[in-house]
Specification:
about 190 residues; mainly alpha; two-stranded antiparallel sheet; 1 helix; rod-shaped
């Protein structure tokens, strides 16, 4: 802020004598003086502005009114900002709760996903084990089937040979039986 110098204007009457057309006239006018102190720290070549107290008071009052209006506007802005801040804090609280719920849900989902992945991995391993066992059993089945077919062929050949033998014996028996029956009838 500017340094202000306060001083009182000293006023006194000055008289001058002038001779006009041989006649001496005395003129009187006011002379003004503004005394300055050495403590005001003004140099001889400094220019100064002098403002009367009533105008200075008017300037200060106008500035004070401007500052008061600015202050009212700032207070209004502050109250608006406080309302916005309260609203934002409420929204922040809601978002924080929502975020915490989502984080919790995400953690649960990740845990379920991890468990399902582990379960899937376990099932895949079991599937591979069962597949290997099935392949082993299938190979054994193929061997057994092959040996069974071989045995079946041997058995069917034996059966057919036995059947032929039985058929032969059956036919001989039936012929013999029929001859015996005829012989008995003839007797």
């Amino acid at each position: 802020m500017a340094d202000l110098v306060k001083s009182k204007v000293k006023c006194y009457k000055k008289k001058t004598k002038k001779t006009v057309a041989g006649e001496t006239k005395v003129y009187e006018y006011n002379q003004y003086q503004v005394p300055l102190k050495k403590s005001d720290n003004l140099a001889c070549s400094d220019e100064v502005f002098i403002i009367p107290q009533n105008q200075f008071d008017a300037i200060i009052e106008a500035e004070l009114i401007d500052h008061q209006q600015d202050l009212r506007q700032h207070k209004g802005a502050i109250s608006e900002f406080q309302k916005d801040l309260a609203d934002l804090e409420w929204k922040h609280g809601e978002l924080s709760r929502s975020y915490k719920a989502l984080v919790s849900k995400n953690a649960k989902t990740n845990k379920k996903l991890r468990l399902e992945t582990e379960k899937n991995t376990t099932l895949q391993e079991e599937k591979e084990k069962l597949k290997n066992q099935l392949q082993i059993l299938y190979k054994e089945y193929q061997k057994i089937k092959a040996s069974h077919e071989t045995e079946t062929k041997k058995g069917s050949l034996k059966d057919s040979a036995d059947k032929k033998e039985q058929d032969l014996w059956s036919s001989i028996r039936s012929r013999l039986t029929s001859k015996e029956v005829k012989d008995q009838e003839e007797q």
